[in-house]
Fold these 4 entries.
Entry 1:
Amino acid sequence: MERGARPDGTTGDCHWRPDARCAGFCAPGFAGLTLLLDWGSGGLTVARADLWAVLGVLVLIALRPPRVSAGDGWLAVRGLVRERRVCTDALVSVRRDGAIATRLVLRDAYGGSVALDPEILVANPLLWHRLDAGARRSRERGTLRYGVSTLWQLGERIDGGTARDVFRASGLE
């Protein structure tokens, strides 16, 4: 079975678990370090300890990555509270949002919408393949009217990186 593929036929972000684990280590580390520094300075009180604990939880929330998964005809992004899902066979628009931290925003004909970091697709070619196959079906059906060039540019970037990796692994580079 390929990396990122699951026994039920869905595909997930193969980097999610290590990234979530890193966030899980950084947040208590931050809270512990701030508690230790505050205690060392002699200003630690119960209220301040509570503040550092709350800030540690906020760091965890900020650092925890969304969980992206895809199946035949759908793509889902699971955040902290809820999961958003789009039908990739009925995409209406694809656009890039943001100048510095870009997000890929996908909307389908049924009102579903997801936003995800395009780097997740770059790092997970199986997820990209699922999205690309659904987007191709959307184009064939005529529902995808906006963002074809955005998907094409992302596909060129992903396919070019994959080809470079294959050449590098085979010693042809």
Entry 2:
Amino acid sequence: MASRVRDPALADRGALQIEWAEMHMPVVAKFIRERFTREKPLQGVRIGAVLHVTKETAALVRTLAAGGAEVRLAASNPLSTQDDVAAALAREEGIEVCAWRGMNEEEYFSCIRWVTEWRPNIVIDDGGDLHAMLHREYPEIAASVWGGTEETTTGVIRLRAMEKDGVLKYPAIAVNDARTKMMFDNRYGTGQSTIDGILRATNILFAGKVVVVAGYGWVGRGIALRARGMGARVIVTEVDPIRALEAVMDGFDVMPMIEAARRGDVFITATGDKKVIRREHFEVMKDGAILANAGHFNVEIWVPDLEEMAVAKRQVRPYVTEYRLTDGRRIYLLAEGRLVNLVAAEGHPSEVMDMSFANQALSAEYLVKNRGKLEPRVYVVPREIDEEVARLKLKAMGISIDTLTEEQKEYLSSWQL
């Protein structure tokens, strides 16, 4: 199957979107791409990628191709593809795409299967569906993969579960856990883009609202910080006592979801787990409560309970579904419970994805260079890659920093004063 996109005629418009993103992604689209173009470290390598097909992803894919790779790209979410970007990528040499906005479940997994059956050497995933399919349905192909990377917290959890169960068949780099990814993409990127998605979908005023944030990892921290910055009163729910304590020390109210459900105007899930907001919570929510998800999969807000409870359902705005309950209360679900920042908006700002995708490009190069030397387990991004991404980002921003003198290095490495 050749590339499959919604409308190839959208390619010119998509090219402009990619140009805009790349102007704000100098690490991936300038520094790394220039070196990759000269050195061709990925020459002849097949890279299978399952990512959100956005203008920022296009910058990464074009850099991989510039390094000599052949790339097949499928969507990591049925509703996140930017169709013009997919069309623009599909017409570039060395890149094939299977993605369009609004895929059904069968179409979604058929595109991932299209990537898998191509027998890629390196796999790049966002959420773990590609890794899971390789191991569950194509173990013989998985055994031939040189290595993989993973973009999200959810996907890294799945990879570590595979490693724990002794079934992981290739080395995998947890790109999500790089400091230049999680501290910036997860916190600042998701924090801003989630609020952006909610505002585009609803046009509500955040000031004065009670916003409930479920989960206080890097994503939850970013959302809570941005919501407070817009004047919202923020409640955090957590199951981890250390994170809950951190939220308290950061000045947020912390309580169980069943209590927060009675108070909240807007609910945002960011846990990576399922059934975080469910029937008992819906039963006590205010009339007009708004539900949004910032976690990878559409399981955090348990929509089956909402469907069972509703006596009427209608779409009142793009990406806003109203559920009317038996007592007349209305609950509004955004983006079908999927990633609100990518469904109702454009995802993370290009500037922050620059660092995340720089880690992806350099990790792919690392896996190629170390083919056959790594065991089938989950690895952190090598420190030298993480720090190189930070250095290049600072360089792009025109910022210089100090360096240690030899005397200072010796002092820090010795136990004798």
Entry 3:
Amino acid sequence: MAALQAPLAKSLLELEGVREVLLASGHVTVTKATIADWEELQEVVEKEISQFYQAGKPAVDPDAVESIDPQDFEEGSIEAQILELLEERVKPFVQQDGGDIEFVRFDHKDGSLYVRMVGSCSGCAMSHATLQEGVKNLMDHYLPAVKQIVGLNDEMDEDVPRPGR
């Protein structure tokens, strides 16, 4: 989503020293530029967020919100079950660390679940462990039809078909 569609992200990105902003349903993650000092930047960022919300502005343009709703799939389908597990059991923990996980697709032929880690999780060395130990173990327990987890990055992801595209 472009910062123009997310006024809070646009406002934060205009602050000197802010490199990236991730907005999730209950979290705002700000990544600082390498040269920035977080102790100096933190107060400025917190003040900007407080003023933004006090002004009553929407963090994201409601027309720009992208999500894959479990109801986009047939009730009880493997995709709907995967989305429910990701939303309820994976996302809250990943978002606490400043990242997020996105469902891309499920391949019924070989049981591959394609997901993408974003925010601080996209470049984190632990994201592989999160996917292969955390998410895979969860799927093994609840949805044995998921045989493997494939983590995509932005470059790989462009050629992967998505639901609704």
Entry 4:
Amino acid sequence: MSDIADASLAYEGVKRIEWADRSMPVLRQIRERFADERPLDGLKVAACMHITTETAGLIRTLQAGGASVALAASNPLSTQDDTAAALVQEYGAEVFARAGTDREGYYAHIHQALETGPDLVLDDGCDLVNTLHIDRTDLLGTVKAGCEQTTTGVIRLHQMALEGALRFPMVAVNDTDTKHMFDNRYGTGQSTLDGIIRATNTLLAGKTIVIAGFGFCGRGLAERARGLGARVVITEIDPVKALDAALQGFAVQPMAEAAANGDVFITVTGNRDVVNGEHLAVMKDGAILANSGHFDVEIDVRALGEMAVEVHRGSRPQTEEYVMADGRRLVLLAEGRLVNLAAAEGHPAAVMDMSFADQALTCAWLATAHATLSPAVHDVPKDIDTEVARLKLASMSISIDRLTQDQEDYLHSWRLGS
């Protein structure tokens, strides 16, 4: 039995899902293929994901392949209640999600999704897999395999595997080339700035934007912030990534140094306390704090609350103004949660088209391949990643070259010299 906020919102949800679907041609092609081939026939899927119109496209594709789907939210602030209603009322999925639910409700919904006894699991941050291994070990024997689509979740899965705790194979969908390129770089780059602008209506041109982390998400953010006229400062712990940022012309500083000069701070690291009390103490009046990492731990919100003498809410949606004892005001966006999903709409549908295509094809592969995989973190097969890119190019009416037979022979021979 689903748990959603308002079933009467289904009509609005369907209209928005159909709008997003028009920008997801790759997933549409896979859905048509799945309807014919039924690669997931009879399988139960439990997913913990953002309840958005784009996610609805993935759920419908899995259903077309023969799966029954139970869906819980991976972030209460990103849940679209009309999408949840449409998935239940019009598309026959089980959904356990309400916008703005508290931590207790969040985990209750994950437990409800798991009650369906899934064969495959899809996770967005590893909370569902974590819950399985800690609270619902009775279900571990029925789970064949799963997918994880976030950097944070993959980090947690690798640690579980390292400790010998992971009980079934998980595929790091997050680590495909297509997802790094489209989702992390172009999607996060655009949608994070979209969330900041919607929440604050601030002009980014001329501002100093400090970006913590120069992975694929950080690179995308830095490129787009520079394009909008901002001065960009990168903070990093990885010497190679820091060097890459410097050679691309970005300033690179420790956070302790950058904290005093930044106008906008964006965290995209997957780690905790990246912006801590020491940094908050020296920030300038009006500094904006935004997180685009999966969990709300990258900015030390507890320290911010302890340092503040007043907190003003409601001036603008998804903004909280923390007033320090010296009169400085620090503006926290979306409670320190994912700003692109809480203050905006997340990635454009065209971006999620590729990420969810990776997910759908990987699920179909796992339906049979799971028996050959160990309880570890596995990569998506290269041919799946290549197929998604090929389908996307075709949808854009772009053709590319093919190797001739002579070129194939040359690449596969070690006997031919210069």
